[in-house]
Fold:
Amino acid sequence: MANPLHIVVCAGIVPDPLQTLEPVVTATGPGLKNELVLPAVLDPWAASALYEAAHLAGKWPGSKVWLVSVGPKAKLQQVMMTIAQKAAFELVAIDAPIGGFADAEATAQALTDAIVGIAGLDRERLLLFGGWESASRGAGVTLQLVGERLGILDQFQGVDQIDLREDGSFEVAERVEGGRQQVSQCAGAPAVLGWATGNLAEPRNNPQLGMTNMHTVMPALQRAKRMDLSSNGLHYLSVSLPKQQRLTRVVKDATPEAIAAELAEWIGAE
Amino acid sequence: MDWSRVVESVLVLTHVDENGVALTKASLEAVTAGKELAQRLAASITIGIVGANGRSAARSVTGTGARLIAVGGEAFAQPRFASDAAACEALCRAAHATLVLAPHSSRFARITASVAHRLAGVIDTHITSLDLEGGDGICALRWFYRQRIEVVLTRSKRPWFLLLDGGTHAAFAAEPSAANVEELAVELPVLRTNIVGIRNPRQALQTVRPDARMLFVAGAGWTKKQPDGQTHVEDAGHLILAFLHATNASLGSSKSLVDQGGEGHSVLPFLTHLNQVGQTGSMPRHAKGLSTCCHGEEPHVVGWRFIGERRAISLDANCGWTRGKADVVYVADAFQVMTRLNVLLTVKKSEETAE
Structure:
């Protein structure tokens, strides 16, 4: 490829999906109980984006990946200890409150400012990656808003695959309704790709890569600017756990024939 | 600006289906939501249509009494960011609405946040219901943390864009009639993306069926060793496909089962990540759901948060998928039950065909 890739991956951090979450009211609005001590992970779909970015950059010599992440410094550092062992990147950190209750507009503005400030980034060659939805707010709008602010008019969401060609153009597969994919051809960067699961398995930990990455991660965390995210007119009227608990009828010691007959009747009933 | 003093007006953004002549079901659901909201607010309503032939599609919503505006032409036949965003921006500017409702389809989910930004508005997505707060303010219900926390929120800023999840409202239905549609001209940017087409992710059966009455969820237990000490992945595949054939159910999968493919284990060949439900999968809506061989705790179970009647076949009655989550759990070997169930369903289907 004539021009190496410049890939910026936007990735938030979220509580480990296996943790029990309980909403609480804080001085600044809704939050999660013990939020700062809950184990955190890189947002799952954004992590897919990072692995795809690192894979692409590895195939095209001279390419570079930046990881732009928003969160409290301590939590970012904790997550980076793991992520840094999985993919090569340069971290751009933004020190801001964690959580899904922040407004997407404010988050997008903070991310945009950070991307614009990246030294050496050629925005004409920019592929902006991220998850198509987060595991916290799950709105699927932040990456789109960053792309819009950067003036990028080729955006793709729910991406599972990208096939990059020598001339810089690419074919991309996006998820659409009915478990199908829409396939598009794009002339090339700049473009926004909000990733779904992709096709790559999670890379194994590589301690040597981790050591290399941490040389840039720690200074990036020290440089991270503190930001407060504005509410942008967003008001939460209630934040609660769903109360619904079903009274489960447990059927033990029934023969497979009897169970099958009961299920057949249930399936057929309108 | 103090938006509390502004009289609300509603715009419903809609788009045509793949055939290009009718509005999608999700669009018609948004029309219902918009009509109900406008009535409660005593607000004006406009319906905006995007598609190659919006005039034809508009016939199905003339019964709403709404003002109809459309952006049409070949450039808008394809769901593409640059053209769709330009079209919706033009519709919004023409409607001057304070509330913009739209279906959370892949086509509109791709663009609506950008359109909101161009209009200096705000956006919330995955809305499952709309209500009036204290009689006059509008509030929206949506889920956070992958359907684990339920939130009611409101916004003081306008225009407020709201993307509605599919299946949360009835589709608008009325006798089609001639429509008076204002067609808007749109100046397009240079289009650098061309849509090649729609494909199945693999050369396999189409097993994700959003309109099916039933969801069948397959868990990792299907690929584990059975009482004879062997795995029976091929048999599991046959049983699952036979059930789908007999019932036209949609196929969902637990994350662990889909992930096994990436870890080099035996997997069901027709499963992809698009079948996955739950934390990092989809949140389908179906009237009934049957889970088989699924194990896990609460975070994994959110995949069937929006399933009406739920039953499960599991060897563990206390598993997180079953206790308190399913209406009925059958403690049994799924291989045995499904074999017999498929026979019954096949016979029943044959009888119905004969009639």
